[in-house]
Design a protein that fits this description.
With 95 residues, chain A is mainly alpha-helical. In chain A, 32% of the residues lie in helices and 4% in strands. Chain A has a two-stranded antiparallel ribbon. The longest helix of chain A is centred in the first third of the chain and has 16 residues. Chain A is flat and about 55 Å long. An 11-stranded mixed sheet of chain B has the order 1-3-2-4-6-5-10-11-9-7-8, with helices on both faces. Classes of the chains: A mainly alpha (95), B alpha/beta (506).
């Protein structure tokens, strides 16, 4: 399988990465090179094989549904580029 | 550089305990070495004040008889480990200014045991790379001079764009370069497809990726969560055994961390390997393998046979599928893990006309080329209509890869010997061409180990015809790192410990 330029733009949109018109053909070539490389797997017989979900056979541990760390709002927002009264601020989403 | 920096981690530990040296003088020696070696670009953040404070505390612990297993030993930390209040960016622009208010479990184990932090080490951005050239902070140079270069040539290149100097490998390039250049006694690293073992092989150092689940991933910047593991890079096998013992251990904050006791790996050093069965997988004899890699592998086989091990030819039929399957699984997991970088909670923000525009501009500016490429591949293989053809198929292939190993271990094989890399180190800028696959092929011998979750160690086996280090890899049974240390030390002894380059860079 290979991707066309329209698909490259769609993937970029899904990944929330802005791409310029000049970047699209390069990305198309690179993505197609990788897709051609992984196409080697098409020849592998996988009928009846279960997908691997955990390399180590173990049960997912359960814990109580309770607060385990609460450093406070100051700490939570300390690294944010923009905050107001302990809230993360973003451009207006709802008009 | 004083002789203190030439000590192995084990020697330094013993001399500290015997009070022949102090942690403060040992730390000062390393701080000075780092300052003089900035041209290598191995460190992206230096923490000398913190280091001296920790060293003074270590000296007090030693004086009062309360020394931990790593008391007073100065280490470097890969930039993807969260270190409280200290630069933690996985060498990405998108994490600009990020200083976590928590400590990763692995580093907190090191400080619990008395180690001293010298600073944060350069790496490929988000651990995506095999040459440390994708770092936002620029490439790292290896302390090994390119063949036929004069020291003066090396110094001039270091002061310039570093082109032509050798890469230390990646993604843990800063860790490998710093350890080989004696800027720290050991370093933390991490390995998703070979990022500990390939740089160790390129720099003549030792690196182990333990079994998946052996070390907690909590507080490590995530790349591909089903493959990522922490591990050390050091100058000797014994040093790796000492460091891994402290790094490993159960952690309830990582749901894939395994609750098994951590053995004293150092006890494995010097244990006889007589009667052990060593598998030699025929599929690793790849097309176009160079004569010197072939010869290195044969030497490794001979050394182990001489030490009384039984050499057994084995087959791992799905070896060839591991790298293509990896380039589906790893980008898929990365595209999900890296969705969190959106310019809202931390790091870089580029303003846009609305929130979606802000996300897109922030991520376009904050991620480097290789990271963008992998996020896009991952997004594609997980997108509607393609999931079964790519991701699900790759996870089934992964089951087959793991079965290959399960079968040979069930047949009584104790460990598997392979080359660590298909070649010696290459030059900075040499593989900057258009085809990303060329760089990916560096991991051809290491990536199967991550796909199967097994432990793997890289140990120096000798020098290439041009005088550059080459590494051998041993792959073990799950949670049998001890056996790997025993066998690796046999190789280290037989090969003769590699002579690291004399200082030309400082």
């Amino acid at each position: 399988m290979s991707v066309d330029q329209k698909t490259v733009r769609r993937i970029a949109r899904l990944a929330r990465i802005a791409v310029t018109d000049e970047e699209v053909p390069h990305l198309q070539n690179e993505l197609n090179a990788i897709l051609a490389f992984v196409a080697e797997l098409d020849g592998v017989e996988v009928a009846g094989i279960e997908p691997l979900t955990s390399v180590i056979p173990m049960k997912l541990p359960m814990r109580r549904d309770e607060v385990t760390d609460h450093a406070g709002a100051d700490v939570v927002v300390a690294n944010a580029p923009a905050t107001e009264n302990h809230f993360f601020t973003v451009p207006k989403v709802v008009e | 550089m004083s002789d203190l920096a030439k000590l192995t981690l084990a020697d330094a530990r013993d001399q500290l305990r015997a009070k022949k040296i102090s942690a403060v003088e040992l730390t000062q020696t390393h701080i000075l070495a780092i300052e003089k070696s900035r041209g290598l670009n191995a460190f992206v953040a230096e923490t000398p004040l913190k280091a001296l404070e920790m060293a003074r505390a270590a000296d007090a612990h030693i004086a009062s008889g309360n020394a931990g297993p790593l008391e007073g030993l100065p280490l470097g930390i890969k930039d993807l480990y969260a270190t409280e209040g200290v630069h933690t960016q996985a060498c990405s622009h998108i994490l600009d200014g990020f200083k976590p208010n928590y400590e990763s479990t692995v580093t907190s184990h090191l400080w619990r045991d008395g180690a001293v932090m010298l600073g944060k080490l350069n790496m490929d951005e988000f651990a995506m790379g095999s040459s440390n050239e994708t770092s936002f902070y620029g490439p790292v140079a290896s302390p090994w001079l390119p063949p036929n270069w004069t020291e003066e040539q090396g110094r001039q290149a270091l002061a310039g764009d570093k082109k032509g100097l050798l890469v230390p490998g990646g993604s843990s390039g800063g860790s490998a370069s710093a350890v080989a250049a004696r800027l720290c006694l050991g370093a933390t690293a991490s390995d998703t497809g070979g990022s500990i073992r390939q740089p160790a092989a390129f720099t003549g150092t030792v690196g182990i990726k333990p079994t998946y689940g052996r070390c907690s991933r909590w507080g490590m910047v995530a790349f591909a969560s089903s493959l990522d593991q922490a591990g050390p890079i050091t100058r000797t096998v014994r040093d790796s055994a000492i460091m891994l013992r402290s790094m490993a251990g159960y952690d309830s904050k990582d749901s894939t961390s395994v609750d098994l006791p951590v053995p004293d790996y150092e006890q494995a050093i010097g244990t006889s390997i007589k009667g052990m069965k060593i598998g030699i997988p025929r599929e690793y004899r790849v097309d176009g393998m160079s004569d010197e890699i072939e010869a290195l592998w044969q030497k490794g086989i001979d050394w182990l046979r001489d030490a009384g091990a039984e050499i057994v030819d084995i087959t791992l039929p799905h070896t060839k599928t591991a790298l293509p399957a990896y380039y589906i699984v790893a980008p898929a997991e990365a595209s999900s893990n890296l969705a969190r970088y959106d310019g809202v909670r931390y790091g870089l923000r580029v303003l846009g006309r609305d929130i979606a525009d802000m996300y897109e501009k922030t991520r376009a500016k904050g991620f480097g080329k290789e990271v963008r490429r992998r996020i896009m591949i991952g997004t594609y293989v997980l997108s509607a209509g393609y999931y079964d053809a790519y991701y699900l198929r790759a996870q089934k292939v992964r089951t087959l890869i793991k079965r290959d190993f399960d079968r040979v271990y069930a047949d009584g094989i104790d460990a598997i010997l392979t080359p660590a890399t298909p070649s010696a180190a290459f030059g900075i800028g040499e593989k900057a061409g258009a085809d990303p696959i060329e760089m990916y092929l560096n991991d051809i011998f290491t990536v199967t180990v991550n796909m199967a979750g097994l432990p793997g160690i890289a140990v120096p086996g000798g020098l290439s015809n041009e005088g550059l280090p080459l590494g051998l890899q041993l792959i073990g049974r799950p949670f049998d790192e001890g056996t790997l240390f025993s066998i690796a030390e046999v190789i280290e002894r037989a090969a003769g410990r590699i002579k690291l380059p004399e200082i030309w860079w400082a």
